[in-house]
Amino acid sequence: MVKRSEVVSFLDEYLKVSEIADGSLNGLQVEGKGEVKKIALAVDGCQYVFDEARSNGADMIIVHHGLFWKDDEGMRITGIHGKRIQALLAGGVSLYAAHLPLDLHADVGNNACMAKLIGLSDLLPFGKYHDVDCGYFGRLEREYDLDEFLKLVGEKIGKVRVKHLFGVKKIRTVGIVSGGGAFAVNEMGKSGVDILISGEPEHVLFNVTKELCVNAVYLGHYDTEIFGVKALGDKLKEKFRDVETFFIDNPSGL
Fold first, then answer.
1. Do 62 and 160 lie in a common domain?
2. How many domains does the chain have?
3. Beta strands per DSSP E along 46-200
4. Which of 34, 110, 114, 177 has the fewest CB atoms found within 10 Å of its own CB?
């Protein structure tokens, strides 16, 4: 068992939440009991996750998508939002959110984790979102034929759901921006990236991808954002030996 304040202080510093401009109110969003012995991790802060966490004895939940965003600081705690808050407070469960800090982190970030899985090296920041580079691009150990590369992605990261393939047929440099990272196709030409791996496509960017003659593949918003919270859970177990962590899977199919 460890004090909640110790876990929060570690996360704030490790994820550098105060240094990263983000629309999310990153950090502790709901304050529960003062001591923590079991932490649940999930992609989304929602009723299902909160109920599962409570039923499994969690004292704290860490999510990628929290309940509060900076535009919503004064929102009313009513409707489904009110029920979610009630579920947390009734069980004394704390909620911690880490949005962009858990996308761009060099060790436990969604994008760094996916880069490791396919063997990217020489990583550089990529995918500027609100003036923050939230993804990475790097080089494969060798050049891949396009079909061979797509097979690698399917085996190491996950199923490719959507393919927008208008660029080169030989792949060596790869950009990765998890979740709603389709906007990064605009950077590909000037960055020399052969293909983009992201989560959720945008209709308005289909023709941009085509006209820029670049490649982009999409694996699902949710499915590209499970890596960070899982890696963070492992880090917490390493840091706090008496704390148990577990992942709650709640796929959206998107």
1. no
2. 2
3. 60-65, 94-97, 121-129, 132-145, 162-165, 170-177, 195-198
4. 34
